[in-house]
Amino acid sequence: MKLRVPNFGLTDRLKDWVMGSRESDAATMVLYDRTLLWLTFGLAIIGFVMVTSASMPIGQRLAEDPFLFAKRDALYLGLAFGLSLVTLRIPMAVWQRYSNVMLLASIVLLLIVLVVGSSVNGASRWISLGPLRIQPAELSKLSLFCYLASYLVRKVEEVRSNFWGFCKPMGVMVVLAVLLLAQPDLGTVVVLFITTLAMLFLAGAKNVAVPGDHRLRRICRGAADHCRTVSYAPCDVVLEPVGGSIRQRLPADPIADGVWSR
């Protein structure tokens, strides 16, 4: 015998609101993906709980406030929620119109961070503006994806039929990758590379390297060699754990051993 707890229909109504019914989606214009929205809220809540739980002793020691980092995280979540509401109101035509400007601005910021950027653990990734710090690598993701979407809308036939139509967006991605590897920031380069290939594949490009292809293995070997070069600084990781960009060195070890490039 199953024990049922009365919920007054809240479960069904919540499920309908999250997933949406096909009839309502067909009759009305959906401005956002409800499933993605709830997943985002869930990740934000889990991250907030993790930050609060892990930072209470540190906050108590630094400022005699166990919720110091929790308050800061809550402020960032509020800012992110406010920016998401503003972004939701911006038409797609605006993103398409200014995609080139956003891309050029990202390239300029990536150049600036190499000159005046703040160095943390051997990597220069932040631009300090008073109490705020900007990470151009994150802005480069948004600008590249907007540029690719705009380019594929305008040049979809060229991408499908012409090799140079495929090379142009890959060339833009390579320019950003070179600037990011100079920081170094290999993780962002991997995200840009995979997302660019995925967008070109969905657009119907015939020159996309599929997993297991010799071109993809060659790129992985090149990334592994780069990891060896920038990660193994002249210092001992045990004696000087923050030197030589240890965050780049530890993930690079299995890649440099050839696990991903075989």
Automatic annotation (TrEMBL):
It is found in: Membrane. This is Probable peptidoglycan glycosyltransferase FtsW. GO terms for biological process: cell division; peptidoglycan biosynthetic process; regulation of cell shape. One of its GO terms (molecular function) is lipid-linked peptidoglycan transporter activity. Belongs to the SEDS family. FtsW subfamily. Coiled coil: none annotated. Its EC number is 2.4.99.28. PANTHER family: CELL CYCLE PROTEIN, PEPTIDOGLYCAN GLYCOSYLTRANSFERASE FTSW-RELATED. InterPro entries: FtsW/RodA. It comes from Serratia odorifera. It is a multi-pass membrane protein. It catalyses: [GlcNAc-(1->4)-Mur2Ac(oyl-L-Ala-gamma-D-Glu-L-Lys-D-Ala-D-Ala)](n)-di-trans,octa-cis-undecaprenyl diphosphate + beta-D-GlcNAc-(1->4)-Mur2Ac(oyl-L-Ala-gamma-D-Glu-L-Lys-D-Ala-D-Ala)-di-trans,octa-cis-undecaprenyl diphosphate = [GlcNAc-(1->4)-Mur2Ac(oyl-L-Ala-gamma-D-Glu-L-Lys-D-Ala-D-Ala)](n+1)-di-trans,octa-cis-undecaprenyl diphosphate + di-trans,octa-cis-undecaprenyl diphosphate + H(+). Keywords: Cell cycle, Cell division, Cell shape, Glycosyltransferase, Membrane, Peptidoglycan synthesis, Transferase, Transmembrane, Transmembrane helix. One of its GO terms (cellular component) is cell division site.
